[in-house]
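Cross-posted from the bioinformatics board.
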Amino acid sequence: MYTIALVGNPNSGKTTLFNALTGSNQHVGNWPGVTVERKEGKFRFKDQFYKVVDLPGTYSLGAFSEDEIIARDFILKGDPDLVINVVDATNIERNLYLTTQLLEMGVKVIVALNMMDEAEQRKISFDLANLSVKLGAPIVPVVASRRKGIEQLLETAVSSIEKQLDYKVFISYGRELDGKIARIEKVLAQKEVGYPSHWLAIKLLEGDEYVLDLVSESDLSPRELELLSFSRQNGAYELELVDKRYEFINQITGSTVFRPQKPVQIKTDKIDKIVTHKYLGLPIFGLIMLGMFQLTFVLGEDLLGDSVADAIGIFGEYAEALLLNLNAPAWLGSFVANGVIGGVGAVVEFVPLIVILYMLMGVLEDSGYMARAAYVMDNVMRSLGLQGKTFIPMIVGFGCNVPGIMATRTLESKKDRMIAILINPFMSCGAKLPIYLVFIAAFFPNNGGLVLFLVYSLGILIALLMGKIFGETLFPGEVSHFIMELPPYRKPTLRNVVRNMWDNVSGFLTRAGTTIFAVVSSLWVLAVLPGGVQPYGPESFLGRIGLLIAPIFRPAGFGNWQAAVGLFSGIAAKEAVVATLGMVYAGVEEGAELVAAIKAAFTPLTAASFMIMTLLYTPCAATIATIRKETRSNVWALFTALYTFLIGWVMAVLVYQVGSFLGFA
Amino acid sequence: MDHLPLIKLGPGESGRVKRIAAGAHATKKLYEMGFNTGALVQVLKNDRGPLIVSLAGNKIALGRGLADRVIILKS
Ligand SMILES: Nc1nc2c(ncn2[C@@H]2O[C@H](COP(=O)(O)OP(=O)(O)OP(=O)(O)O)[C@@H](O)[C@H]2O)c(=O)[nH]1
Ligand SMILES: [Mg+2]
């Protein structure tokens, strides 16, 4: 099967094209750095299957960050039969820089000139036939988001794969450099390194580490080595080489790309005047977040109301009746009523709110605001020793910490990356939402949006503070530079918003049916054993385990064994906290509402300290595993598990103690 | 015609990149992102926080530290 790689600058539409080609549902968003790992898919064209690989975006082959390295490694070592270079038509000159590198490397390239709709809006026009000849690669105009031009693209792709590639040298780097390149090329010509020697020579002049290593591995005579080591010191030429490539690009686009004399005013500029304003920028960011949470409550609760909760209730009654009819044993009835309905049901009940929140986050992601959020946060981050781009993985973490931590791959500085990984768990993920929602329903039903906003903000605050502390202790170093493209605002498409929501919600539902179900089932067994004691009581196995842990939380005000067990099970997955509470409380009194039980067991103050504990304490197992994978270290994974617990505990105790002192108890 | 760092340019002003005097990595990255010698840059915003500049019709935010190292031939 032929392999086709999608390569291009960040945010040029590679994943959109990938989804259009393969029918997959990979994450698309309007900011640079959405895709940070390799994704594979398949499509069929004229009775032939082709493998397609979606890659992270990159500006060049000289990779700086982890995601760029993934893209470069696949281009260099993955041996694709064809590269579809996705080029943003509105930004063609800069995008062609990577194209020239690909062509020089000697891979088969066709250009998918994407975003043609936006180019048209900006009155940019092209003489594609001419440009294609000058560039030496076929160019197909497409609008990936509307699946326009895909057929033509596939035709071209397939015919290119079958054609023989004729490698030609097309960029002249000026007399002096061309001479140097030719000399190095001659030395390399006899070696079997697997790449065109012309390209290797250029890369050596550029001081490219990867190629230097590659060439050093082949056996060279001392004289040859000398000739190459001369190139090793020639990082000095790298900027000149870049300039020459751009000169070439300007020369070929000069007569084939036509921009209007006066750039067409787009609404992006007007919006940016407001949202990046020096004083208004931050408050607007805060308002957007607050608005998101308020809207979640308005839409999720008032509109959808208790529809899912009612459905679960009806399902519960039906199941119970059925079991009675079948003369099922009593324990099975109790398991279904308390374990499944009380526990797993307590989590699933919140699906409407979670759907709404993820849809709103999807709108934010697909609009182009993410990059602006990083922009306005740069000032704040800078005062803490970090840079604005570090904020993007944090926002991603609001959905789920696993992709949040993966998103740190886009950070070039090791310091930024490590800190961003370690603080990501404080960004409250969607799985913690049911916990807050239960406590909000019990104690703060009229201020749900505000309470959520405060919880999430506290998470950001603690993350930033810890970032500062880590920067001054574990990872000292200079504050890194901020460079970020601000993409034009785009109207979020329903497809993207729903896809991104479903990504998260389906994960949520799957976990409810697997991890949560398993956790609740095993805890249920512990809660009803040993025989003879009061089930769900302190004498049960579960109760005894809980009582063992509970004293740790007494200073925080929630020293009851149920809370202790809930927190403990939350390390498997955060939804398990609510599921466990639902199960143990549902069993105490037949049909007791979880919310009512919580009302009885907590006070507003202990509810607050418990919510803060769940916000901050040890992240779920999947997150810890991701930290381990991304840092390639057990130590950092363990460190995160422990220090977050400590921070959570300290904050919960602080809130409870200060609150009691002030008389809120 | 005078040379000055990008950070000295006010909103609406523009010029061409003369050279970049930042660290090796940052310099290369900027060059490859289109801040190569002779590229036309227009400042859109320069008050507090990173600058926003327009480069071949696209918008790039650039930290103040970096903007101080990008030397421009003002037009
Ligand atoms: N107007 C328009 N928007 C498009 C087109 N193709 C993609 N987009 C939008 O461009 C944005 C970026 O698309 P992605 O597919 O995530 O881009 P990517 O190249 O995979 O980005 P990274 O993974 O970050 O490198 C999304 O908001 C898309 O909806 C197009 O042809 N026209
Ligand atoms: Mg992508």
